[in-house]
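Posting this for the archive.
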Amino acid sequence: MVRFMSLIAFSPVIASSDAFVPSTFSAKIRTSTSLFSSNDAKITQSRRDIFKKIALVTASSATAILSTPVANADSTKKPTKEELQRIKAGKEGIDYLLANWEKVTTTCRDNGGECKRDAEPVRRYMGLRSTTDPLFQIEKVFAKVKNMDDIDFDRLEEYFNAIEEYNSAISMSNSMAFISQFGEYNPSGGKEEVLKYLNESEKQVRLALKSLNTIVGILDL
């Protein structure tokens, strides 16, 4: 009987679902729902913007994987002649890339088929595609230069600034080239998008070459 009376006394509470929800919490839910509805257009990004953000993150991750931090290089070893020649060979490769930009970044199907712009060679010349590329993980070689006997210590600050600027340009060029490679598959994209980011990549390659010329000059290669 007591249990029955308890259930009767408790039944009004059960009948009202709002009894378990604080009024302030309910108000917040209603307010949040209202804001969501009114701002729906603002918080919905275009698929193209989302694609670009994903591509930038992916490209940056690829750069991080392919580049070894300077701290990992041996702190006492000097660069070998072969390693120094890699810097020179890499510079000459970028010289060729920029002098023949449209040719190198254009691929055509066999038998006179359709031609299209392609940013993949850019990443290769920058040392971001294969361990056989001259500039692949060139940061290790850069880090060893300070141990050379004939290094001009008066230009060390200039040298390290050039390395920093080179690495920054390489990272940006890689990102732009990566986005360009998938420009045609990007929603609302197309050939114009491919060319747009390919041109942005070229600007960064020129900045990288400027820094590389400084490095080559300091090392007298």
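The chain has a mean pLDDT of 75. The first helix runs from residue 2 to 15.
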